[in-house]
Prior knowledge:
Elements: H1 9-14, E1 20-27, E2 36-43, H2 67-77, E3 80-86, H3 88-94, H4 96-113, E4 121-126, E5 142-145, H5 148-151, H6 153-174, H7 182-185, H8 191-200
Amino acid sequence: MTVITPRLTLERRLLGECELLISLDEVGRGALAGPVAVGAAVMDAAGARRRVPEGLRDSKLVTEKRRPDVAARAAAWVQASAVGWASAAEIDEVGIMRALGLAASRAVQAVVDQGAGIENALILLDGNHDYVSKVHPVPLRVRPVIKADRDCASVSAASVIAKVARDGYMAELHGSHRDYQWDRNKGYASPEHREAIRAVGLSPFHRASWAITDAPTLF
């Protein structure tokens, strides 16, 4: 399999139209348990001239062992970064797409709180659907791009930062919910996870509105 190295081609072009990019990517959309997380990585024109950190890829293409180091280098490379969250209870209450919007809005607000100016910023969002504009309290310029997490280095940075944060959170939850093996499956539908749900039932961290026991294995 050919691994595509993310570049800054699109970022450099877009930064001719705006002063700042806030790149977003989600993690945990398809999990059965735990929150959904959206990473945000901020880049300006000067940052877009810096060399992409070695090994930076979409988080799905980085081994679990290497991800923390890659995430740390990604966070040091961009001008600011953050992770926004929406809980399993929020997913049950409002649905996964609005929950993604809540998490994305919180990630954007977190980098704004660090000093990123939103007025002349463009949101670069992985995927084909803008799930953040309807949720965020102020107007946003959003550019959804399919496979941005693979092709755009700033979105790859957001991806790996969010992945490491969410995996760490699920590993912490494992300490008090060992039956589900969240340290291994991170809340996704592994056979062992589904069998534990059938044996001991749902935890407060499961997405109870989903047809969990019948869910397909997602990885």
